[in-house]
Every structure is written in structure tokens, then in C-alpha cells.
Predict the structure of GNAT family N-acetyltransferase.
Amino acid sequence: MLKGGKVGLRARHEDDIPILQTELYDDVVNHSRSDVRPWRPVTPGSKDSRLIVDDKEERHVPFSVVELDGGTLVGTAVLWNIDNHNRSAHIGLGLLPSSRGQGYGTDVVAVLCHYGFVVRGLHRLQIETLSDNAAMLRSAERNGFVREGVLRSSAWVMGEFLDEVLLGLLVQDWKPDTRG
Ligand SMILES: CC(C)(COP(=O)(O)OP(=O)(O)OC[C@H]1O[C@@H](n2cnc3c(N)ncnc32)[C@H](O)[C@@H]1OP(=O)(O)O)[C@@H](O)C(=O)NCCC(=O)NCCS
């Protein structure tokens, strides 16, 4: 398990799946705001790649996020589109509603940076998030990500096009211990 100050990132366990499906995935608005793919219902027990992990998919590394204190499941995190030639990847995360606003998101980003830069030897990490997602923007910026641009009207979200902000962090600018 990868450990931050408050959370751990571990493999997806089978009994995580119904919790993630009910509390995260089945929330159509939240899903539509945090996933580029359109929401659609997932049949319980199906092999849908949004929840079931395919260990053979090397470019996509999903984690379940747990509280270090007690091990309760609090959400998901992912390093995706890992490109070993350009040594870059994207990061994504989603916390259960009851676990938001307690500093976990900032900690998850820190752990994903450690995984990307230290464990995987990457050079650049990237995040795209809706321009009104203040908590995600702040979680990224507290870990040193900088805003590199606005992708105008790039996301179709519940009936309208919204802007996304592109944030990036290079390994040489990463300061693992100071989140200011
Ligand atoms: C985005 C998300 C991962 C952030 O995690 P979090 O644990 O809620 O965020 P934190 O508690 O670490 O807060 C980070 C910062 O944002 C601020 N913040 C938290 N919630 C906020 C809100 N609703 N509005 C404005 N600021 C907020 C915090 O005060 C903190 O700022 P600080 O460092 O100055 O104190 C989480 O809210 C979430 O899962 N949201 C739904 C899914 C999602 O949007 N995923 C991202 C898709 S790209």
C-alpha cells in the first residue's frame, strides 16, 4: 500500500465495488462532472472497466483510497494514460461524498505524485478538471501543479459545455514535503 499523511492507496478489493457503485458511480451529476465518458447504468456483477480493475491494462493503474486510521474505504484514485516514452501520465480521483473536504483529496494527489515520479520514474503529471471545481484545483495547486491553460467548452456536462483547466507538474518542480 502507498501511504500519505491521512490516506492509503491500495488495490481494488471486490467488496469495494458495491460501495463505489452506490455512493460514487450511481451519482449521475458527480460522474458527469468527473469522467469524460457519459454516464450509463452498470449491471451489478458486470465487468465494467470503471469499477473492475484489469491488471493487464498497463497504461491505467487504479487504486482504492482508504483511511490510514481504520482502513475505511473513502474513494478512488488513478494514474491513467501512462506514456513510458514521453514519461507522462494523467491523474484522477473521486472521494465518497461523506469523505470530502477533510484534506483527503490533497493527500491523494500527493500520494499519486509519489507513485508517478518515484515509483514509475515519470517526468510530467497532468490533471484536467472543470474550471469550477475549486476543491480539485486547490488539491492540485497545493501539491505544486500549475495552471497551463483553459480548454474552452471541452466538456459536455449535463446539458452544457463547460471549460476545463489543464494543470501540470514536472518532476523537478515537485516538492514532496511542502504543500503550500
Ligand atoms: C475534488 C476532490 C477530490 C477534492 O478532495 P477533498 O478531500 O474534498 O479536498 P480537500 O479537503 O483536500 O480540500 C482541498 C482544498 O480545497 C478546499 N475545498 C474543499 N472543498 C471545497 C469546496 N466545495 N469549495 C471550495 N473549496 C473547497 C479546501 O478548503 C482546501 O483548501 P485549503 O488547502 O486552502 O484548505 C473531492 O472533493 C471529490 O472527490 N469531488 C468529487 C469528484 C471530483 O470532482 N473529482 C475530480 C475530478 S477531476
Observations:
- The chain has a mean pLDDT of 94.
